[in-house]
Each structure stands twice: as structure tokens, then as C-alpha cells.
Amino acid sequence: MQFFLLPFSWLYGFVTDCRNYLYDSECWKTTLFDKPIINVGNLTVGGTGKSPHVEYLIRLLKDKYEVATLSRGYGRKTKGFIHADTSANAKKIGDEPLQFYQKFKNDVDVYVGENRVEALQKIFTENPKTDVVILDDAFQHRPVKSSLNLLLVDYSRPIDKDYPFPAGRLRERRHGAKRADAVIVTKCPDLSIDERSQLKLRLNNYLENNIPIFFTKILYGKPQNCRSEIKNGDLQKVLLLSGIANPKPFEEYAKANFEVIEHLIYKDHHDFSEKDLEEILAKIQDDSTTILMTEKDMVKFKPFLNHSLLANTALYYLPIEIGFLEDSMKKDFDEMIFSQFEKTIYK
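Above: the chain sequence. Below: its structure as C-alpha cells.
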């Protein structure tokens, strides 16, 4: 099928090339801001690990600066600019922004808005003390000129072996990576120096000269009880739930650490329903079965956490963070981020 879809991919790539040319040639307007705007994005449709990298940046910056995050709010049922508050839920602001809000509400301001330029203007007007905004998934949002474009590339799906939609999963052609100021290869196994060098050589064919390339891996935390006041599970026998773009690493980790009776996989950003609950209940073998889900899914599953039919079932989620393959790599990355506050970005 990929062979027959390639002509459509060429057409799609041509359209995105034209759009990028209009921005590069300044025929279409881009807006510059006098405060750092750090964009975390990708060329691939979903699944590169943007959320844990945004969270890494939040943890890195929150103690020194007034930080805000801005997302489109994919999957929300609302429109327009919204500043997350205590009334926030996944339907109002989207699952990933809600995750940021629940984890960091005392440290950062979380916003959603489709029009990023308008949203940024409102953020700086509403809270002029904001020092930096982290843009979530805005690599293709060209109306905003970001201070730092961080391009995430999934190790298992490198851009040099992929194609634009519909033959592949790229949102634009590979040379769009030239807009990146740094590349992060995500979800890496433990790679040797030679393996990293080989991958760098391949990626450098699509990057500007001397663009730094970093390598990160997923760090799974201790499973957390979704309802601390309700039943604790022994986490020996688990039923997995996931509605994420790439559930394979989650499943592999769970199988290596628990007895997995089954993995119920839903589409990315899935909204759980009563019908899903019936399917889940049918898979629970007995009271010793623990439901284990991703942190992102826990946000969406929240309306069912206190459902009477789950009163005797333990519910856990698996938190994740990212780590760099080497301490020196982390040091270089952190210094690159902090340098945004030590220079005049636009001259």
C-alpha cells in the first residue's frame, strides 16, 4: 500500500513545502516576542514523547523563572483561549494540558488556545511577569517565531526512514527539520557511542550545520494509586489500559515487571465511555487483578475512578519522566536552555 500512496505523499509534501516557503520568504507573517518561547514539537504524527519533555523543562525552569505552557488542547470540547483553573478537566482543556496543570498548578500557568499568536499576546498581557512560555507541539505552527525549536525524533521511527502522510507518518517533508535549533532522539535504549554517531550522521543530512543532537530515554516511576483512599493492589497481576500513540514501550515495561493478563489498547487521546468500562470489567479475573494505565490515560479515566463497579478493583497509573543517556549530555542541554535568558534573542 505504501508504494501506491507515495504519489499522494509527494503531493502532500509539495503543499507543505509551499506553505513553509511562504513563511520563510516572509510573504506570510510571523510574530516575534521579546521573551523566550521554547517550542517542543516533531515532524511525526504523535508518539515522540512531547509531554514528558515539556515536564522536564518545567522542572528545570520553575524554580528560577515564571513559566507558562501553551497547548492547542487536542481533543477538548471547547474552543478559544483558556487559562486552566480548578474547574479544568480533559473535555475543557485536553488531557495533556490537564496533566500539566494537575502536576504543576502551584508552579506554572497552563493555557490552551488554537491561535498561538493571540494566545501568547493574552498570556503576556494577563500575566506580564511571565518569563518564558513552553509551546507544546507547535513545530508546524509557523505564525509564531520561537526562540528555540526543539525537534523530537522517536528512536524507533527516525525521520530518514519515514514519508509524509499518507504513505508515512510525517507531517511535512524531512527537510523541515532544518528549522530545528536542537534535536532530541527520544525513547532510546542504551546506545553505544558508535550507535549514536551513526544515527547523528543520518539525521545531519536533514539538519543545519552544527545543530546539537541529544538522546533521551524513558524513566518509569513507581506505580501510583489513582485512589489513595481506596484499595491498594499488590501489582502482581495487571490489566493494562492505554490510549496513547505508541503503547509498545509501556507494554514491554509492564510485561518485564508484572504478570500482564491483557492489554486493552485504545486510540490516542481516547475518551473512556460506559461501553469501555463494560469491556474492562469483563477482563477483570478477580479481586487480585489490578488495572494499570498510563498517567495520560488516568486523566481521561478520572470520571470512572469512583464508579461503584470498580469499588473492589485497585487502579494504578505508571508515571514517566525522561533521562539523558549521559550526565554530560544533560548538562549541555540544560545550559542551552538557560542560555535563552542570557542573550538578546532578536537583534
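Residues 2-65+131-219+325-341 form a domain with the Rossmann fold fold (CATH 3.40.50).
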